Amino acid sequence: MGDRLFYLTREFKFDSAHNLIRYHGKCEKLHGHTYRLAVTISGEKNDEDMIIDFSFVKKVVKRKVLDRLDHAYINDIITQPTAENISQWIYGELKDELSGANYKLHEITLWETENNYVKYKEKNV
Ligand SMILES: [Zn+2]
User: Fold this and answer.
1) Rounded to the nearest whole angstrom, what is the distance from the C-alpha of residue 33 to the centroid of ligand 1?
2) How far apart, in whole angstroms, are the C-alpha atoms of residue 61 and residue 91?
């Protein structure tokens, strides 16, 4: 890649229920969160002076993540649904489809509450 690198982010929200195993605290019992998700893509501008079309990002995230996690019991998909594990799972689901000639998935940010969030990205990417 050249020396002009852009970071493009689209945000989403979804409501899910979960409970944590091997954990004693607030998240031990079944409850829900309104998660906030930021999907960040890094890349260079294409012939249309864009990194990637925001609407394409929305379409992929809806199909791969929101349709499966929104109004769902996350434990059915991720055994221990900590914010760390959920963000890692989301990254894995999106990585291939949000990768193109001039862009790639950079980072997932997942807010479990207004004040608490986790960032996940793969090393050396
Ligand atoms: Zn919780």
Assistant:
1) 6
2) 10
The yes or no reply on domain 6-120 and CATH 1.10.10.10 is no
Catalytic residue among 33, 93, 107, 112: 112
d(CA 77, CA 25): 22
- 18 included as an active-site residue: no
Residue-averaged pLDDT of the chain: 94
Q: Outline where the chain has alpha helix (H).
A: 54-61, 67-69, 83-94
Residue-wise pLDDT for 39-57, tens only, equals 999 999 999 999 999 999 9
**121: CA distance to ligand 1 center in Å?**
22
71 is annotated as an active-site residue = yes
* Known catalytic membership, residue 24: no
90-120 per-position pLDDT tens digit? 999 999 999 999 999 999 999 999 999 999 9
Domain ranges, ordered by start, for the chain: 6-120
